[in-house]
Amino acid sequence: EVETATVAFVPKVLQARSGQVTVAVRNRDLFWHTFTIDALGVDIRAPVGRLRAATFEAGPGPYTYYCRIPSHTILGMRGTLTVT
């Protein structure tokens, strides 16, 4: 599970085993956010005060996740998912 708060992801580093990966995003912020991994086609949209989840296939490697809401990435809303 990843939380959003104060325009940041907590934690900024996630780890998972290859295969099916499930990520849940709990938005505790005052704005909509997304949890987006372009390389895997993941785009979880998390409204304020809600929990959203997605399951997807991921092979080994590091993947960058970010919020695609304008300016949120610049403010630091990004992290890394490492799949082993």
Please name the defining characteristics of this protein.
84 residues, three-stranded mixed β-sheet, 9 strands, 0% helix, globular
Topology:
Layout: E1 2-4, E2 9-10, E3 13-16, E4 19-27, E5 33-37, E6 42-46, E7 51-58, E8 61-66, E9 78-83
Parallel strand pairs: 1-4, 3-9
Antiparallel strand pairs: 1-2, 4-7, 5-6, 8-9
Question: What does this protein look like?
Answer:
This protein has 84 residues and is mostly beta strands. The chain contains no helices and nine strands. The chain has strands spanning 2-4, 9-10, 13-16, 19-27, 33-37, 42-46, 51-58, 61-66, 78-83. Strands 2-1-4-7 form a four-stranded mixed sheet, with no helix packed on it.
Summarize this, please?
0% of the residues lie in helices and 57% in strands.
In whole angstroms, how far apart are the ends?
Answer: 18 Å
Largest sheet: 4 strands, mixed
Low-pLDDT stretches: none
Strand order of the largest sheet: 2-1-4-7
Alpha carbon gyration radius:
12 Å
Rounded average pLDDT? 97
Total helices: the number is 0
Q: Find the count of extended strands (DSSP E, 2+ residues).
A: 9
Note the run of SSEs as H and E: EEEEEEEEE
| Overall body shape | globular
Strand proportion: over 45%
Helix content: under 10%
Instruction: Report the structural category.
Output: mainly beta
